Amino acid sequence: MSPAGVTELHRIGVKCLAREAAPLKLVDLIPVFQRWIQAGDFDDLPIDVADYSHVHHGPGVLLVGHSGNYCYEESGGRRGMVYYAKRPVAGGLDTRLAEVAHKALEASRRLAAEAGGLAGLHFPGNELVVFANDRRLAPNTDVAWAALEPPLRTFLERLYPEGYRLAREEDPNERLAAYVSAPGPVALETLLMRLC
Amino acid sequence: MTSWKELLAERTDPKLVREVDAYENQLTLRRQGKIEEGLFQETRLRRGVYGQRYDNGLRHDGIAQRRLAFPCGDLRKGPETLWDAPGMQRIKIPFGGLDSGQMEVLADVAEEYSDGIGHVTTRQDIQLHYVHIEDTPDLMRRLAAVGITTREACGNTVRNVTACPKAGCCREERFDVTRYAEAAMRFLLGHRDTQDFGRKFKVSFSGCAEEACGMAALNDLGYVAQIDGHGRRGFAVYVGGGLGPVPYQAKLYDPFVPEAQILPLAQAVARIFARHGEKKNRGRARLKFLVHNWGIDSFRAAVREELARLPKDPAWTAYLERPSACAERPVHTGRSLAPTGDIAFEAWRERNVYRQRQPGYAIATVVLPLGDITSRQLRRLAQLARRFSGGHVRTTIDQNIDLRWVAETDLPALHRELQAIGLARPGAGGITDVTACPGTDTCKLGIASSRGLAAELSERLTTRAGALDPSFRQLQIKISGCFNSCGQHHVADLGFYGVSRKIDGATVPHFRAVLGARREHNAHEYGQTVGAIPAKRVPEFVDRLTARYLAERQPEEGFPDFIQRLGKQGLKPLLDELARVPPRAVDRSLYTDWHDAREFNTSDIGVGECAGTVVARIDFDLQEAERLHFEAQIALEAGDYRKADETAYAAMLEAARALVRTDEPDAAEDPDTTVREFRGRFYDTGLFQDRFVGGNFAQHLFRRHTDTERAFTRDDARHLLEETQLFIEAAYACHGRMLEQPRTAVGSPA
């Protein structure tokens, strides 16, 4: 895989891992996402809410959008808020990474601010998963990882100037993904400011 | 950057490559407005690219109906379907057979183009939702590279050929029907006699007459394996079955059709359906209406007459003789397994494990909740299939996946691995394993949330599964979001389909109960429709009805018998009690649907694409000619003059062939025959002649056909492209005249 492939990558996703004081019922996310659609204050065009709360470690509940999907999901057995782009994102790869991360973090912030059944949900902000949802441009290979890592590190240094650890998804059958962890919690507002 | 097309070209069947190339060109032509939207709709449906709820750009968000401002503006992919609106991709899985490599690719495309979920349907297909139409060519290429086609998954075509998932392993079957189902799929796919239906056409194969796995009774064409008195293989053939709003039981066409005659019989039935089936009234266009209207005796006579007329085709037997693509071999030697003492394993084993007729082997059923499986689970399951079942699985019409040829001694290890990926739910095919169509989640026709109700019932029943009476645990629940029966509610003990009622000035979601089907003998008796129940009270209805069954049943009385004995009169008090809906001010919950917080309304129901648009064969053929002309233009722009020239010539031949087929469907398709037939039937008769230019445009084809010394220059290619365009336009005009004034010539040959 040539570095050129990775630089053309648009189907990027970012997951902001969550903590729940008590296990959240995923179906409680359905009215929340439906309210978000009603509010009509999204950058993207929100289309519908999809419920996959019945599948094990799946996409949970999705807010399906035109440009990308938001979901509170539990892949890998860890719950978190994900945004992943489906249509082209403007700018170079570093800009695209920041744009996608901004959307994931902003949705996390918004979800954490929800009252009611979601009380006890928070996002420590120090654990992210960044993934490439495009096996043509960015398969989970050493070559593609070598191409992705430098721009990813540039982006992460902006997000976590205090330092971070980076690990790659080891299963070659899964998507190319980077597991990011910073030493301690960081407020989502801080992270969002660093991306501005 | 290398495209999927380039990456996969060498490992894909060239025929499939050409098909996807053609489809991709059609997308381009539609974007340019060069294909009419109704025609494009049927074109994409025939590639399995289906509409989805809200694709008309309108969605009720619970407060008001809002317009979804897709960037595409007014560009449409069908008469009421916006280009950018997410859609569904249906993927045909003939007889439900998949290998591990195919499962891995399905997992990947579900993740990258859909929402990370593969959905197994009640016809053993796999569906992906929320797919953008511009992603579909790459999606198809990746599937084609592992031998999967989406061709004719939707539209007025032969849909997925289904078969018993136990075929080859079943203790009751007469013989393994797999290769017959596979042969029927290959023979009918793209066959010229299956391109002009007024409606879809469903085929199934069953290994025995006694069980329900193949459900021959609810298919247009159902084959049930038989062995005659001489030990020869054949099938009892049933025709004209179908569910939908008014279910029809298939009629016995012939108690024994020898194996070598099943494909010509399918072809003859297809011809009769294409020729005599209803084309205008979409609600009466299925084969079941034709069989019903004619009566089985007249239908049989017409098919036999057609059979006698069919030109002989080596494919009738060649497909049966081909080695199967699904050659299954066990991984480990089969050894039987004694009871283990592991409670969770034994609970799973009770309903999820079927002992094969081959000693020491078993089929393990993986229960998929609502038919859904995540991409990660699908990849892991592919690995488990390699490890335990020789790398093969079958999807089932109960929306599950079967691993076959598992050595019984491997079952505990398989169960542990399934537990690790959340796929070890017990109760396969029982009360907790609820079947549901997509309903209001994604279907344009859905009235109520079949999946929401299914999830709720499944969860509630699972929590008390251990305490349930065994005769209760074996009941089946099937739910459809509307009367069209995609959830197959007519063949369940407890079936439900979505309806609505106006109460207190608002709309309340309801489900109508359809009870007591007898599934044995290929679903020989459908359930009886009783009353409608508010959606939120269906779980209570299930609890109370089944409790009554357990309390009041007579010795050995099955649920269908109990329902029959009770009758509508006996059920009425319970239905009446549950049907009373308090005003909204008292209980708002009844005015919403399961797993949907929006106040219920039916304004999102759209125009279904299931019935599609009837597009005549000639419209498709002329569109193909246009597509070839487009391909020739691209070749010209790329400087490949030879290809441009030859493709333009092919486009003219295709247009001529389109006209010839209207007169002689069985005409050979080589260029000499096409030109000769076209000349004789359309040119010499004056049918092709234009009032003003006479037969000049036909000369373009004749000249090119006889030009054996052609130089492939830029100018010549460009001229031929211009002539081709004129020839295609003239073919359209000729067809238009034929419709207006059949067989009236307007001029004489030039």
How does this structure look, described?
The complex is a heterodimer of chains A (196) and B (750). Chain A is α+β, with helices and mostly antiparallel strands and 196 residues long. Chain A contains 5 helices and 10 strands. In chain A, the strands form 2 sheets. An 8-stranded antiparallel β-sheet of chain A has the order 3-4-5-6-1-8-10-9. In chain A, strands 2-7 form a two-stranded antiparallel sheet. Chain A is globular. The model of chain A has no long low-confidence stretch (mean pLDDT 94). With 750 residues, chain B is of the alpha+beta class. In chain B, the strands form 7 sheets. A 5-stranded antiparallel β-sheet of chain B has the order 1-6-9-8-17. Chain B has a 5-stranded antiparallel β-sheet with strand order 7-18-19-16-15. In chain B, helix 4 (100-113) runs antiparallel to helix 5 (136-144), helix 19 runs antiparallel to helix 20 (641-663) and helix 19 packs antiparallel against helix 23 (714-740). Chain B starts with a helix and ends in a 10-residue tail after the last helix. Classes of the chains: A alpha+beta (196), B alpha+beta (750). At the A-B interface, helix 2 and strand 3 of A face helix 4, strand 17, helix 12, helix 14 and strand 26 of B.
